[in-house]
Write a structure and sequence with these properties.
about 400 residues; alpha/beta; Aspartate Aminotransferase, domain 1; Aspartate Aminotransferase, domain 2; 2 domains; 13 helices; about 35% helix; binds pyridoxal-5'-phosphate
């Protein structure tokens, strides 16, 4: 029996069974669907990409996996070298893991231990954002601000170690004033808060965050598991404002294999670099640096550069703005667009009840949640396919009137 994610198993409707997938399309027995969700925002090159498939096959002929404890290999070294040269500033030190949640755990652990190694033992607190989502493991739930996890509050009460603030400069300045000597880090999903409802905010907030973090010696962590690789219309938000620790996941492997990376800057790395063995970072996921994942990630980055994906993303943004121009409905609270992400927030979640099936019948796979209907398409989508996705979203409002 499969226990499905985020579902009340008693009432869930059965999932669509996929029998094949290619390009932006998912195939069920009777339908051909454009995947407007990119399999949780990861499949940026589409499915069954010949070069990505080939990269995996080539690695597979050597070996699928070896552990990184005491062993290393060419694919992980090449990926780490590539990330080091490709990522901005001195974000040069790559710690691999098997999922975004774990990579965030590693980032939070790095930030805490960085200060414990320096004997600044009062720095036990984390600053985070309201509506934040950083993963489903316990520490990431604590740092996140998701109602789905309120059972944890019920069990343990509110965390004494995490402060949540809205994306407002004044609130941030107040929090720094009050807590700066107890904070080890400030973690954010930069510019776009995904699972918290596709909430978008201004870069000026992050610029000020960088200033405050530098002023008070608080480590700035960008969780770019969702925003990385172009989703916001920037290659990485870290290209605009430089964090101390960057977390990448989801699109890292083009959606082929679960893998993630926590990238530290020199200052953080040096906080662990010591003669004392107890200053080492004690973490090591079994499948970190998996050879198949690294080889496909490397090829994914190569495609991203070679085929000018940033231009593709800007084209998606342009078409999205054009198609949504003048569209409104009294049931809609706000339409938000940024890069290759669009979200229609409605006042009442009932408004989009039934949309998933409507979209299915119109040849689009969509997965609205709470009050949010959204699309985060694969970047290889063609104009007519994107138009179809957006028109299906709009048509729901006329069809359900
Ligand atoms: C999806 C997501 C995660 C968790 O990644 P998993 O691979 O699902 O563990 C963490 N942070 C953000 C911003 C995400 O969108």
């Amino acid at each position: 029996m499969i226990w499905y994610p985020y579902e009340q198993m008693k009432t869930m409707k059965s999932p669509y069974e996929i029998i094949d997938a290619e390009g932006v399309y998912l195939y069920t027995k009777e339908q051909k669907l454009i995947d407007s969700v990119s399999s949780w925002w990861s499949v940026i090159h589409g499915y069954k990409h010949p070069e990505l498939n080939q990269a995996i096959e080539t690695q597979l002929e050597k070996f699928a996996h070896v552990m990184l404890g005491g062993l290393t290999h060419e694919s992980v070294r090449k990926l780490s070298d590539k990330l080091q040269s490709w990522l901005p500033g001195d974000l040069d030190y790559c710690f691999f893991s098997d999922s975004g949640s774990v990579a965030v755990e590693v980032a939070l652990k790095m930030a805490l231990q960085y200060y414990m190694n320096r004997e600044e033992t009062q720095r036990t607190m984390v600053l985070a954002l309201k509506h934040a989502y950083h993963g489903d493991t316990f520490k990431t739930m604590e740092v996140g601000d998701d109602e789905d996890y309120h059972f944890v509050l019920k069990a343990h009460g509110k965390s004494k170690n995490v402060i949540h603030i809205p994306t407002e400069v004044e609130a941030m300045e107040q929090a720094f004033e009050e807590y700066h000597d107890r904070l080890n880090c400030f973690i954010v999903e930069p510019l776009l808060q995904g699972a918290g409802g596709m909430r978008m905010y201004d870069i000026s907030f992050l610029r000020r965050a960088r200033e405050l973090c530098s002023q008070y010696g608080v480590l700035l962590i960008f969780d770019e598991v969702a925003t990385g690789f172009g989703r916001t219309g920037n290659r990485f938000v870290a290209d605009l404002v430089l964090p101390d620790i960057l977390v990448l996941g989801k699109a890292l492997t083009g959606g082929y294999i679960g893998h993630a990376v926590t990238v530290a800057n020199r200052k953080v790395y040096e906080g662990f670099y010591h003669d004392d063995p107890s200053h080492a970072l004690m973490h090591g996921p079994t499948f970190m640096g998996n050879a198949l994942a690294c080889s496909v990630a490397l090829k994914s980055i190569e495609l991203f550069e070679k085929h000018n994906y940033m231009a593709k993303i800007h084209r998606i943004e342009e078409i999205t703005h054009r198609e949504m121009q003048g569209f409104s409905d009294p049931r809609i609270k706000e339409i938000r667009m940024m890069g290759a992400c669009i979200c229609i927030e409605v006042y009442d979640s009932d408004t989009i009840n039934g949309y998933q099936q409507f979209a299915y019948e119109h040849g689009v796979f969509s997965r609205p949640f709470l009050n949010y209907m959204y699309a985060m398409v694969p970047y290889v989508i063609k104009e007519y396919e994107l138009v179809k996705v957006l028109r299906t979203m709009k048509e729901w409002f006329s069809a359900s009137r």
